[in-house]
């Protein structure tokens, strides 16, 4: 049986942490704003030197915004978990009747809150400063964000499972994940330019379908809903698999006693 109070407690803890520390609030939107400003001027420059070419603002700046949204979602899940690791609070949480599902739900809801704030800042900045219009994407904007959100959640849970298994030192494997995946996700170019082996990996990544569909719409062609349906199906599958993996690793940590020795030096 799912209880809402433990989930609300996780959210409330994150609220108190952010309210008491501006340093935790700043990263929610600061890095995304920097990316929007940087790529906004790059796209403006490209439009200026290629007056007869495509409009780079919705193509490149839109891609940056979508990718930053995905990154914020993933980091929203991992940062909430790592807060418990850094404060040595993880064992205390599971000394209560809190279930794995309730804990993961709390992480996801925390990510929704932080990523929504970051998304609003990016939307306002990209629209006001660089004239990015989302009417060009039409109603497809909603499934784009949904697929990226679902995949971000799955990667966040996977990253948490790695840290839970190998200890806090493994957090350094977490932060580069979006950068490592970006070449395969074809954020700024079509999958067709990639070598065959990279295309195989790309077809397993839901964001690749989002960015392919986005470029198709901007090129004036009809959207392919089947492509996004497949991407959403993959993302949901990954959420189920990573949640199962996190649960298995958590049970193993309890069975072996690793969870009681969970310190900053644990990496075995």
Task: Describe what you observe in this structure.
This protein is mainly alpha-helical and 268 residues long. The protein has one domain. It contains ten helices and no strands. The chain has helices at 4-19, 22-49, 56-86, 90-93, 100-130, 141-166, 177-185, 196-202, 206-218, 225-256. Helix 6 packs parallel to helix 10 (225-256). The radius of gyration is 20 Å and the shape is globular. The relative contact order is 0.13.
Present the secondary structure layout.
Elements: H1 4-19, H2 22-49, H3 56-86, H4 90-93, H5 100-130, H6 141-166, H7 177-185, H8 196-202, H9 206-218, H10 225-256
Helix pairs in contact: 1-5, 2-3, 2-5, 3-5, 3-6, 3-9, 6-9, 6-10, 9-10
Keywords summarizing the entry:
268 residues, disordered C terminus, mainly alpha
The gist of it:
This protein is mainly alpha-helical and 268 residues long. It has helices at 4-19, 22-49, 56-86, 90-93, 100-130, 141-166, 177-185, 196-202, 206-218, 225-256.
Report the portion of residues in β strands.
under 5%
Tally of DSSP β-strands: 0
The major beta sheet can be summarized as: none
Radius of gyration: 20 Å
How many discrete domains? 1
Judged by helices, strands and strand pairing, the structural class is mainly alpha
Shape type: globular
Order of helices and strands: HHHHHHHHHH
Number of helices: 10
Low-confidence stretches: 264-268
Proportion of residues in helical segments = over 70%
Q: Whole-number average pLDDT?
A: 85
Distance between the termini: 34 Å
């Amino acid at each position: 049986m799912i209880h809402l109070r433990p989930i609300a407690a996780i959210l409330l803890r994150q609220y108190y942490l952010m309210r008491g520390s501006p340093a935790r609030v700043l990263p929610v939107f600061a890095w995304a704003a920097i990316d929007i400003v940087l790529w906004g001027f790059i796209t403006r420059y490209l439009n200026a030197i290629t007056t007869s070419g495509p409009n780079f603002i919705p193509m490149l700046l839109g891609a940056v915004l979508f990718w930053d949204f995905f990154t914020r979602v993933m980091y929203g899940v991992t940062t909430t978990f790592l807060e418990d690791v850094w404060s040595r609070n993880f064992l205390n949480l599971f000394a209560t009747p809190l279930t794995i599902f309730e804990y993961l739900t709390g992480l996801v809801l925390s990510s929704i809150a932080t990523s929504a704030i970051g998304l609003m800042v990016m939307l306002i900045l990209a629209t006001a400063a660089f004239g990015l219009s989302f009417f060009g994407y039409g109603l497809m904007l909603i499934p784009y964000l949904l697929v990226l959100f679902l995949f971000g959640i799955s990667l966040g849970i996977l990253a948490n499972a790695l840290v839970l298994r190998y200890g806090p030192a493994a957090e350094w494997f977490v932060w580069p994940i979006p950068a490592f995946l970006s070449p395969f996700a074809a954020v700024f170019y079509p999958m067709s330019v990639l070598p065959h082996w990279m295309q195989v990996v790309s077809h397993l990544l839901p964001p690749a379908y989002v960015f392919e569909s986005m470029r198709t719409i901007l090129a004036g062609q009809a959207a392919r809903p089947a492509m996004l349906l497949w991407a959403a199906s993959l993302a949901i599958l990954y959420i189920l698999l990573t949640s199962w993996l996190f649960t298995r690793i958590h049970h193993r940590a309890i069975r072996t006693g690793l969870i009681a020795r969970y310190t900053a030096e644990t990496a075995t």
